[in-house]
Amino acid sequence: MTNYSTNEFKSGLKVILDGDPCSIIENEFVKPGKGQAFSRVKLKNLKTLKTLERTFKSGESIEAADVVDMDMQYLYNDGDFWYFMDLSTFEQYQASRQAVADSVKWLSEQDMCLVTLYNGDPLLVVPPNHVELQIVETDPGVRGDTAQGGNKPAKLTTGAIVKVPLFVDQGETIKVDTRTSEYLGRVR
Amino acid sequence: MTEDKKNWEPSASIENLKTRSRVLSKIRQFFSERFVLEVDVPNISQNTVSDPNLDSFSLRHNGSRLYLQTSPEYYLKRLLADTREDFFYLGKAFRSGEVGPLHNPEFTILEWYRCGWDEFSLMDEVFDLIKFISNEYDHSIKSQKFTYLNYFQKIMNINPHTATLALLQEICVKRFGSQWNDASRTCCLDLLFSQIIQPKLPTGIVFIYDFPECQSGLSEIREFPEYNVSRRFELFYNSIELGNGYFELTSGEEQRSRFLSDNIQRKIQFKHSIAVDENLLSALDHGLPNCSGIAIGFDRLLMCLIGEKTISSVISFPWES
């Protein structure tokens, strides 16, 4: 079991707090001139994605979390699990519904995702920043209407619903930013 | 320090360095007008502080261990005992491991002593000094004094001197997590004061005095019917701690016993013990006049006067680590 002392704390370090893996966002050194030194730490719980703040005595140490981020290819899902493959070892990993969470609406087969492993199991799945997906349902396109603003909802093959300009049609493939759900353009 | 700066460039702007130079000369002018003598004391000594919360840099020379001084206090007290004159030191001090936006392990300290003065007269002089050096930056600067008890009761609704350790631990655990359930009394108080009370201090200059007895350091004790307090005070500027002062302890015997209990604390924290500074104790035995003294972090004071947020913006080059 590895431990990290407060003087090794830095942003990005993965530790275990109250049994959950957390990532350190920020570490501030606090010390009264004549008193005990503290580390005021801002962390993200990697399970709940909630941000929390903790204050530790300087020199105190906490357990390191076995957390690694890996690029993996999304293969398929069987309704219960989503399967990913490390292309360098061809090893497959199954991610729970909780791990894929909201990312599920962007996952299309063969896309490369960032998978966070905790003790060897997928904890978090982050889809590519940009994905190309086909529209399966939207109001008919308004021809020639390329200059005016305005938009309409469109449903994509993965189930995600994004706002698209009025001129975009059903059956077209579009590029979307998965971080903001923003429409980026048509793909020919 | 701005991110886009190249490594070789200084971390302070030339404007800040000019202000720094001007403020340094104004401090010297202030004390010279008041007949307080500037003195240079060694930065390297065989002895160092035993305070469990201070770590000294050490170095080896001809087989013996020497330390960079965390403050000029012991040398200045030896001068006071010998001469009964007022002295100030304005120069470097070193504290290992203290790195952050408000800390630089090598820093400039302003420390002075006034013979025959109590801590309240010294607080007034500290404010006079700050007005004198800040008149071109902040005309509206105000000063207030509160007891430690006063602010603790106001914000936390407890008496820090009489509250049980169990109650203090319970509050710390509730606010900051289970790792505080075995913290010492002084550790709980430091945590609550620095994290909860200090950010709520009024703006401007604030003096907090009559610290808990367990945090007396090198100060005399003031006795009340139900509890004792330490005749220690701290200086804050817009909630940032700038300095620490004492109505100084003069008993060599009492000082020796505090040094010994420091070393017990160090042992508990797995820190090596520090030999008692016999030269200081001999000076106290010879007779330290009744006096008050204060040490101020000059870089932080300057940072506050200019309105900067980090200490590195007022020192020429930052700590390399």
UniProtKB/TrEMBL annotation, chain A:
Which residues are recorded with the post-translational modification N6-(3,6-diaminohexanoyl)-5-hydroxylysine? 34
Pathway involvement of the protein, from the record: Protein biosynthesis; polypeptide chain elongation
Q: Where in the cell is it found?
A: Cytoplasm
Q: Protein name, please?
A: Elongation factor P
**Which classification does the entry list for the species?**
Bacteria, Pseudomonadati, Pseudomonadota, Gammaproteobacteria, Cellvibrionales
Q: Which family does it belong to?
A: Belongs to the elongation factor P family.
Which controlled-vocabulary keywords does the entry list?
Cytoplasm, Elongation factor, Hydroxylation, Protein biosynthesis
GO molecular function annotation: translation elongation factor activity
Task: Cite the SUPFAM superfamilies for this sequence.
Answer: Nucleic acid-binding proteins, Translation proteins SH3-like domain
Any one of the GO CC terms: cytosol
Q: Where is the Elongation factor P C-terminal domain?
A: 131-186
Q: Which residues form the Translation elongation factor P/YeiP central domain?
A: 69-123
- Name a biological process GO annotation: peptide biosynthetic process
> What modifications follow translation?
May be beta-lysylated on the epsilon-amino group of Lys-34 by the combined action of EpmA and EpmB, and then hydroxylated on the C5 position of the same residue by EpmC (if this protein is present). Lysylation is critical for the stimulatory effect of EF-P on peptide-bond formation. The lysylation moiety may extend toward the peptidyltransferase center and stabilize the terminal 3-CCA end of the tRNA. Hydroxylation of the C5 position on Lys-34 may allow additional potential stabilizing hydrogen-bond interactions with the P-tRNA.
Note the superkingdom of the native organism: Bacteria
Question: Known CDD domains for this protein?
Answer: S1_EF-P_repeat_1, S1_EF-P_repeat_2
What's the source species for this entry?
SAR92 clade bacterium
Q: What does this protein do?
A: Involved in peptide bond synthesis. Alleviates ribosome stalling that occurs when 3 or more consecutive Pro residues or the sequence PPG is present in a protein, possibly by augmenting the peptidyl transferase activity of the ribosome. Modification of Lys-34 is required for alleviation.
Q: HAMAP family annotated for this entry?
A: EF_P
